[in-house]
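User: Structure please.
Assistant: Input sequence and predicted structure:
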Amino acid sequence: MNSSFAQRTTLALLVATILIIYVFPYAFLVSTSVKPPEDALAIPPTLLPQRISLENYSNIGEFPSVQRSFGNSIIIALLCTGWTLLLAVPAAYGVARFATWAGKLFLLVALVTRLIPPVSVGIPLFAIMRSLGLTDTHVGVALAHATIGVPLAIWLLASFMEGIPHELEEAARVDGCSRLGALFRIIIPVAAGGIAVTAVFVFLASWNEFLFSLLLSSTGIKTAPIAIAEFKSQYSIQWGTMTSLSVLYSLPVIIFSLVMQKRIVAGMTMGAVKG
């Protein structure tokens, strides 16, 4: 009995420690965003604000370009997620179902592209987009983000689809369904949880991407990470404005994850379902 209690206590302390480590940076971010500007620069810094002020949030209205950048980030992230899934779902299906050496090589190539530092392909990518007239456009930035999302999505979806029993598709084929019809009517609905998980990761990758957005955008379609970074200058850092914008920037991701929560849980556990 004592041994079981000690194990539960140790586990609870471990979980609490991990939660504190993960939650503390965001808690400090939120705390700083509601501090008056003079308290945000206090030395030594304090975790809890001595006086709560929404001045930092009210000042955001003075920067209309920042508001536009948030809309740009949403449009680009949604475009990237949609295009990535459109390409990755059939690719992952082909790799998982046919299991050929070419498919394995394709997965290896996708993995290698994920290992390449984005900064090394930044200039060639900019040259390509400029030659196509896609610089400073939502389409151009979304396509650049998709170069990051597609390899990740293929790897994730291939593992999900490998867990789907072949008998389901074979039964649909016996009933007269084509392979393409089986993909849309059987495989995709069954793998909806895995697709949701992939969509969340791809959306987050595009939402947080900085380098390609910086290279391919200017004032017209500047994304929120770039707009937030611009409040750090050579002479000062506007901590209050940066933290309040960062809190607002994190809300769509939190809401998106909560909306997709059931799908995410289903996707994480679909491998435990027996065929």
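The CA atoms of residues 3 and 25 lie 34 Å apart.
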